[in-house]
Amino acid sequence: GAGVSQSPSNKVTEKGKDVELRCDPISGHTALYWYRQRLGQGLEFLIYFQGNSAPDKSGLPSDRFSAERTGESVSTLTIQRTQQEDSAVYLCASSSLPLGLSRDTQYFGPGTRLTVL
Amino acid sequence: GENVEQHPSTLSVQEGDSAVIKCTYSDSASNYFPWYKQELGKGPQLIIDIRSNVGEKKDQRIAVTLNKTAKHFSLHITETQPEDSAVYFCAAGKLIFGQGTELSVKP
Q1: Which residues of A touch B98 (CB under 8 A)?
Q2: What is the rounded distance in angstroms from the CA atom of residue B88 to the CA atom of residue A96?
């Protein structure tokens, strides 16, 4: 079946511009996660959605970052007034069970590579 | 906050040798420890996981061991093959990841 998809695959933008990154989770998956992966680094948790609500926004690095999810499906991560340090791969993952239930697997998308010039 | 330390950051082995990657975690309440493989240009893919009620789990050439007392867990890959070359990440729970190990298997 279809996995997690993300678009665009690559995004180059100028410093100060806003960008929107999109994630389409696996159909029926209620939990959705966003991560940031800087070059050569591990995954940095950004935000978690259960359904359309975000009980954990603790990882968002600044108020320039926001995310929403509609219809318990598609999610968008928005970065306003992009800075060069925002350059990274942004990964989305989904899972069928809520965060607190560990007997569950996260499925990752291929990521969006964001480059801020 | 919770932290996961992963070592080594790079690992080079000859084809057929074994590879071991180790992680330590800080939160004693953690009870789920997945390992992911990330190939170039792709998202991480779960390869094996272990829960805190077992000490070892094996799946063909891959095994994971967990020592809850010492708060560390390890990935073991035996009979390595060139296609095992990738970046491997450990995690404690779903949100906290190690920094990754770049494994290179030389033919």
Answers
A1: 42
A2: 23
